[in-house]
């Protein structure tokens, strides 16, 4: 069974982006221009752009256009993209994109945990108690009572 036209179109544009043909910040043709160039409907183009956005390759700025994003290709740019991943028809592709997103956020969480730990250690070096640090971080009173005053 042949792929839907919007999937083929998205793959073509993704190839250009990943291949370096379109670099960060490049504005894609308008949906009307893409539809005319490929002999398809604007709805087909819209779905293709939605797939590109779900893969984290482009972002759309209302009234300005759709632009190639920088950073780590293949990582959705926002939480709203999770819904777009859910909408992808190909189950294997959907699973792959979900896995990539999970890995991306696990790495970010690890980085943030390291930053938080360094900040806590810095505060301790400046004489701030664990209880006060916990209070400033918004821990519940029941958790604060479990923290040592001094180590």
Automatic annotation (TrEMBL):
Biological process per Gene Ontology, one example term: negative regulation of DNA-templated transcription
Entry-linked InterPro entries: Bact_HTH_transcr_reg, Tscrpt_reg_HTH_GntR, WH-like_DNA-bd_sf, WH_DNA-bd_sf
Statement: the UniProt record of this protein carries the keyword Transcription: yes
Domain HTH gntR-type stretches: 3-71
Pfam families: GntR
Signal sequence extent: none
Keyword DNA-binding listed: yes
Any one Gene Ontology molecular-function term assigned to this protein's record: DNA binding
Keyword list, A-Z: DNA-binding, Transcription, Transcription regulation
PANTHER family: MANNOSYL-D-GLYCERATE TRANSPORT/METABOLISM SYSTEM REPRESSOR MNGR-RELATED (PTHR44846), MANNOSYL-D-GLYCERATE TRANSPORT_METABOLISM SYSTEM REPRESSOR MNGR-RELATED (PTHR44846:SF1)
UniProt protein name: GntR family transcriptional regulator
Organism in which the protein naturally occurs: Nocardia panacis
Lineage of the species this protein comes from: Bacteria, Bacillati, Actinomycetota, Actinomycetes, Mycobacteriales
């Amino acid at each position: 069974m042949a792929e839907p036209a919007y999937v083929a179109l998205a793959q073509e544009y993704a190839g250009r982006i990943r291949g370096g043909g379109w670099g960060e910040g490049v504005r894609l043709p308008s949906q009307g221009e893409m539809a005319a160039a490929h002999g398809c409907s604007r709805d087909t183009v819209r779905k293709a752009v939605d797939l590109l956005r779900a893969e984290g390759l482009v972002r759309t700025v209302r009234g300005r256009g759709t632009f190639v994003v920088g950073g780590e290709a293949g990582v959705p740019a926002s939480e709203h993209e999770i819904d777009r991943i859910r909408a992808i028809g190909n189950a294997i592709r959907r699973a792959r994109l979900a896995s990539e997103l999970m890995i991306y956020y696990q790495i970010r969480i690890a980085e943030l945990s390291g930053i938080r730990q360094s900040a806590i250690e810095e505060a301790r070096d400046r004489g701030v108690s664990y209880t006060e640090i916990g209070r400033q971080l918004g821990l519940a009173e029941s958790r604060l009572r479990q923290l040592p005053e001094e180590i």
